[in-house]
Write a structure and sequence with these properties.
alpha+beta; 5-stranded mixed β-sheet; 3-stranded antiparallel β-sheet; 16 helices; binds protoporphyrin IX containing FE
Length: 435
């Protein structure tokens, strides 16, 4: 790609001048085209698991990079750990507000925005987050541990031996759907509806195997979700508060009078938050573990390493690929001038592979000294509210798998999600060898 510049130099000439492919003078003013960097927002990169090399180059050559053109419009790519943290920790400059564009690189279709508290800035964000946070407080997690273990054991014991089955469906989706139904006090028999709505909410309608093919079809499905949830909401609002997410929101001062689109948005947030991320860590973790048997042998020999295995799985998988912010004022990041109103994308997948922050970041390694030092849960005021619950679910899954000494082998390639937002695995054929 060669394009002319006002100073008369082609980008190729500029590239030769600074040796890095950057027009630094122009870049300092904010908005200039860089040469030859792939668009890391292309969902195909994640479908093929081919994102490592482009990000490695971005981190090295242009860590805060302006992409002037993309199907999502112009945007800044933030690819280093430290720069992502700087954005996360300055929400007054880098806004999550739905009105400015929200938290995904793709803007929501106009008139169909679904605001929810991840797409809000303080003070509304603070109040709504506070309403639901107690469900994942340490005391409640301790109450839920026995139930999670019982269910995990029964799912593992019910798996076929000596025949191929889909781990993503039979283990990861099943366990997370059960958990979500518990959090909402939603009928367990209908728990897969929650999975379906989560899949619908994050579907990339351009994917050939998308579960919905248009934004209108997505909205129609989510309206059904709203109707189902509204019925439960009405019933819970009419009786004394109980300890589930629907009752908490129906009685919470900051949430009880939400408009319909915010109501749908908040349910979609909690369903996607509790479902997609944890389930993909369950599948991705198995892939990583089977590729690194020596690491699992270390955990078997020293169970104290289990929490670090869980954190490493979550770092390794990085189930949320990016979060987006929009600048509320001119800003400077790593020496680059970002203008008010610009779209800024934090690539967690890249920050989690940044050697400057994580030693030997490409390796899957248990026992890292600061195992929770990763970006998979984000940071700052929007840091994942369900992080401890996700870690608990994964810890129990691994404890129960190790206790059974399951000999699992991969029986075919994983099918990955066509998405630049969720690093998902739709299916993973495996076999458990009979003991
Ligand atoms: C491995 C599992 C999980 C991962 C990797 C994950 C990742 C994330 C990330 C990256 C964010 C945004 C952070 C930021 O903007 O700085 C987030 C926010 C959130 N997550 Fe999770 N999550 C997981 C599990 C869960 C679970 C189990 C729940 C629900 C029970 C949940 C509910 C939420 C909610 C409600 C938010 C919005 C928080 C806010 O805006 O204040 N997540 N999560």
């Amino acid at each position: 790609m060669v394009c002319a510049r006002p100073n008369g130099l082609s980008t190729r000439q500029i590239r030769r001048q600074d040796g890095k492919g950057l027009d630094l003078a122009a870049a300092r003013t904010g908005h200039w085209r860089m040469v030859d960097f792939p668009d890391v927002a292309d969902p195909a990169l994640y479908r093929t698991d081919g994102w490592r090399a482009p990000f490695e180059r971005l981190r090295r050559e242009d860590p805060v990079h302006f992409h002037p053109e993309s199907p999502y419009g112009p945007y800044w790519s933030v690819s280093r750990y430290a720069d992502i943290m700087a954005v996360e920790l300055d929400p007054a400059t880098y806004s999550s507000a739905s009105e400015l564009g929200g938290i995904q690189i793709a803007d929501q279709p106009r008139g169909q925005e679904l605001p929810n508290f991840i797409r809000m800035d303080p003070p509304r964000h603070t109040a709504q987050r506070k309403t639901v946070a107690p469900i994942v407080a340490p005391s409640n997690l301790a109450n839920m541990e026995g139930l999670i273990r019982e269910r995990t054991a029964s799912v593992l014991d019910g798996l076929p031996r000596g025949e191929t089955f889909d781990w993503a469906d039979r283990v990861s989706t099943e366990l997370t759907a059960m958990m979500l139904a518990t959090l909402f006090d939603f009928p367990q028999a209908e728990r897969r509806k929650l999975t379906w709505w989560s899949d619908v909410a994050i579907a990339n309608i351009a994917a050939e195997d998308a579960v919905v093919k248009s934004d209108a079809a997505r909205m129609a499905e989510l309206r059904q979700m709203a109707e189902t949830m509204a019925a439960l909401w009405k019933e819970r609002a009419g009786r004394p508060p109980t300890f589930d997410l629907i009752s908490m929101m129906a009685h919470g001062e900051a949430t009880r009078a939400m408009p319909l689109n915010e109501f749908i948005g908040n349910f979609a947030l909690l369903i996607v938050g509790g479902n997609d991320t944890t389930r993909n860590s369950m599948t991705g973790g198995l892939i990583a573990a089977l590729a690194n048997p020596g690491e699992i042998a270390r955990v078997r020999a020293d169970p104290d390493l289990l929490p670090s295995l869980v954190s490493e799985v979550i770092r390794w998988q990085t189930p949320v690929i990016h979060m987006r912010r929009t600048t509320t004022r001119d800003a400077e990041l790593a020496g680059r001038k970002i203008r008010k109103g610009d779209k800024v994308v934090m690539w967690y997948v890249s920050g989690n592979r940044d050697e400057a922050a994580i030693e030997d970041a490409e390796a899957f390694r248990v026992g890292r000294p600061r195992a929770r030092h990763h970006l998979s849960f984000g940071a700052g005021i929007h840091r994942c509210v369900g992080d401890r619950l996700a870690e608990l679910q994964l810890r129990i899954l691994w404890e129960e798998m190790l206790a059974r000494d399951l000999e699992v082998e991969i029986a075919g390639p994983p099918v990955r999600l066509y998405s630049n937002f969720i690093r998902g695995i739709r299916s993973l054929p495996v076999r458990i060898n009979p003991s």
